[in-house]
Structure formats: structure tokens, C-alpha cells
Amino acid sequence: MFHRSHAPLDLDILVLPETTLMLFAAIVEPLRAANRVMGQELYRWHVQSMEGRPVETASGVPVPVEGRFQTAGGRPLFVTASYNVQAHAGPEVIRSLGQAARGRPVIAGAEAAGWPMAEAGLLNGHRATTHWEDLDAFAARYGEVEVVAERFVRDNGRITTAGAAPTLDLMLELIGARQGVARASDVARLLNYRPGSEPLGARSGVTDPAVARVVALMDAHLDDPMPVAQMAQAVGLSPRHLQTRFRAALGMAPQAHYLGLRLGAARRLLIETRMPVLEVAAATGFASPAGFARAYRRQYRESPRETRKTAQARHTVSATPA
Question: Which of 80, 120, 150, 301 measures 20 to 30 Å from 93, CA to CA?
Fold first, then answer.
């Protein structure tokens, strides 16, 4: 697929519920723009769902589909998923992906779609990535996958991306490989988009470079929190100086920001996975379940189990046929 060619390329896209519109657009809009730039239909996409019905996205706007997902066929397959992937990628999805892998040379998982790919065994022995917030949980669950913090990863017919913007970067790379870098640049300019190279986790928007580096360290060590003194040493500051600069940049102490990051990661795991509460606590750096429960209640005014119960009830309602 990633080789010089002017032959038309057909792609199948399997959209799972609660995919974001931005992620779906990150796949199809660069291809549409490429067709416009080149003045011919070099890319065609065929959108499918598991049931053959329009898929409701995370924003509530449905995506039309051509029909039910067909596992057979030789076309490259892109799978999209964003939120609550474990609720939407049940045994039928896992089984279908395993069947699809027998005849398709390329299967790509955009954003959270790497999870069902890994569950189906399609990423065993491969390098892969996922959204930067979920990298640690993904690596912990799938030990046979080499998880890396990159925007997207191509490895021997398996592709994974870390979000919408990285998916757009992937599509530009595809266009560049097939029609040349100049044409891919034309597409990027048409979309008024500059491909990203910012390291994952360094998204704080902080202008102080030392504080931004510390925030990235926090993102990378949610499961095993680093002492403030160690982070200060890593950026060449004294702990006191780091405290001062951190408060100036973010209006709070480093410890408070770090705790907020860990609790936010815990909340996402409680809502979007079936990981037991005790494992969620450990995965976000809490040695004591009681201490985790107290900190969580102070932050969110409910217990971790109450959050899990509410999320499960919502998933049950959304999965009930109309």
C-alpha cells in the first residue's frame, strides 16, 4: 500500500460507535483532498458498521455506511474507535477482526481501535501505539505487543495511531508514498494543516520549557510517581525553584497537578475499561486502595465504584436496541 502508484486504492473503513467525527474525518478528508489535488479518483473508501446501520459518533452525529462489515476481501481495512471501546468491541468484533486478518494485507487501528486488534491477537509480536493517555494500560494488558509512544506505527501490515491528528499524519504519509511528497504537501496546504512532530505527552501548552518537561515526566510516570526532587533534578532546577516556576505557569504546586493527572487517568480507566478498581489504583500510582478512594472522592465527589456503576449503566442503555 505504501509504494509509488497511480492506480486507484480502495479502503474499507469499519466505524465503531462513539468514534469521534474528527477521527473519521482524519481518514477520509485527506483522501478526498488528494483526489481533488490530483484531479482524479485515486482513493475510494467504503464505510461499514457491524450491524450495517449508521453509526452514532461521540458527538451524536451519525455516520452513514454502505452496509454490514464484510470480513472477506483483500482491501486494506481501517478500524476507528475512540470512546468506550471495550463496550463496543465485543466478541463479535474481535472474532470478525481475526477473520479479516486472514485475507487482508493491511489492517489499521485508528486511536482506540488498537485495543480490539490486540485482543484479537493481530498485534502480537508487532510494534504498536495508542492514545498517549492509555499507553501504560495498553502495555500492561497486552504483554506480547511492543508498545511505543509514537504518533503512528506501521509494522508489517499492522498500523496503529495515537489519535485524530496522528491519523491525519498517517494518511499524508500514505499519499506521499503513492503520489510523492510534493502532492502530500499540496494536500496538507489545502487542509491548512502542518504534520505534527511534538512528542506524545508534551501537550501542556506551557511556555516555560522546564515546567513543560516536568509535565511530560508526570504523564510518563502515572503508575510510579516520581518525587518532585527527582523531577527537579531531571530539568536542572532545585525543588524550591521548580515549585515557584510551576505555580507561575500553572497556578498550582507540582504535587497538586500530578495528583490531578493520576486521578484523571483513573477516572478514564474506570469509565472506559473493565479493569478492577484495585488494578486501576495500582495503575495510577496509588499504593493504598483506601488512599486512592479518599483522593478520588475529594476530586470527583463520588467513589470509584460509583463512577464505574454509572458508566456501566450508561453503556447498558446505549447498547439497548431502539
Answer: 150
Note the pLDDT tens digit of each residue in 150-187.
999 999 999 999 999 999 999 999 998 998 877 888 88
Contact of 62 with 54, CB cutoff 8 Å: yes
Do the Cβ atoms of 62 and 55 come closer than 8 Å?
A: yes
Is the dihedral angle over the CA atoms 213, 267, 281, 113 positive or is it negative? negative
| Grid cell for residue 202 | 508534551
The conformation of residue 60, written as its DSSP 8-state character, comes to S
211: phi then psi, degrees, rounded to nearest 5: -65, -40
- Cell (9 digits) for 307: 463512577
**Which residues make Cβ contacts (< 8 Å) with residue 123, sequence separation at least 6?**
114, 117, 142, 144, 145, 158, 160
What single DSSP character describes residue 198?
P
E strand segments, the chain: 9-15, 43-49, 55-56, 62-63, 67-68, 77-81, 107-111, 127-128, 146-147, 152-155, 158-161
Give the other-Cβ count within 10 Å of 216's Cβ.
18
Task: List, in sequence order, every residue forming a beta bridge with 77; answer none if it has no partner.
Answer: 12, 107
Q: What is the pLDDT of residues 245-267, one digit of tens each?
A: 999 988 889 999 899 889 988 88
Name which of 98, 51, 108, 44 is nearest 76 in CA terms.
108
Query: Which triple of cell numbers denotes residue 98?
Result: 481475526
Dihedral pair phi/psi, residue 225, rounded to 5°:
-55, 135
Q: Give the Cα-Cα-Cα angle 137, 194, 61 (nearest 5 degrees).
A: 60
User: What residues have CB less than 8 Å from 227, skipping those under 6 apart?
Assistant: none
Contacts of residue 2, Cβ cutoff 8 Å, sequence gap at least 6: 154, 173, 174, 177, 178
Provide DSSP, 116-141: HHHHTTTTTTSEE---GGGHHHHHHH
- Are the CB atoms for 132 and 112 separated by under 8 Å? no
Question: Which residue, 133, 152, 169, is CA-closest to 26?
Answer: 169
* Distance between CA atoms of residues 262 and 255, nearest Å: 11
Residue type, 61: V
